[in-house]
Amino acid sequence: MRLNSDKVFETITLIFGVWILFLVLLIFYELLINSIAVFWRIGVKFFTTMYWEPIKGIYGALPFIYGTLFTASLALLVAYPISIGLAVFLTELAPRQISQVLSSLIELIAAIPSVIIGLWGIFILAPFIRIYLQPALKSLSFIPLFQGETQGLCYLNAILVLIFMITPIMTSIFTEAFKNVPTDLKEALYALGGTRYEVIKHVSIPHTRTALLAGTVLAYGRALGETLAVTMVIGNKPNITISLLNPGYTLAAVIANEFLEATDSLYISALIALGLILFVISLIVNLIGVLLLRRLSK
Prior knowledge:
CATH superfamily: MetI-like
Strand content: under 5%
CATH topology: MetI-like fold
């Protein structure tokens, strides 16, 4: 009887796994079929053209691909060390009561709706960048990242918003990972005369590296696909520039902004093709994460 129950459970989970795979393939198929028109008409130039002018029938995805990867990658580079530091503080340094309060607060921040964060970016971050941060960065204008002027809606605003959104996610995952480090391992190094820093460096972080990588991949995927908040603060201008003070555009933002006003079939096909590109990028990121996780687990 137990064998039959195990077999039934195994069959049910197998069905769920196959169903998820089927859904992924179905989504990919629908996106591909509905974007063939623009690929057939424009070809490879769709991925290399820097201009997006639907009125003239010019469709180039390169500025949106660049904007998506640029904002998400820089946000991750800043959010990762912050999340590691917060997780270490909450698990190793902070008193228990303070740790519980801060952990609850971080989880609440992670649950804030995107539109609220977008409004915060418009009414708080944008004036702050325009009035205070921009003058302070003028002395660094010789660095390409800080050249130009802005009204507040720019790459920098979008990156700050993404940092605010993905830091709580990574911090929660990292904190739980550090809490699950066996106490015996840490006490063994303490007994050998190790300092708290050495315990964190040689025990906690190596023991949780798979969880750290999983949290990083999850946060990066969130940053790549974030739509509403980024759309509200990035400036929505197809731009390929390294300056953080210039406006930009992302794949998710252009789809959200222009899909309802698209009437031409080629225009609709181009927007669906952008969705296909975002879908493929997300799959590639998650696939790389899975491969790295398997390698680390071995």
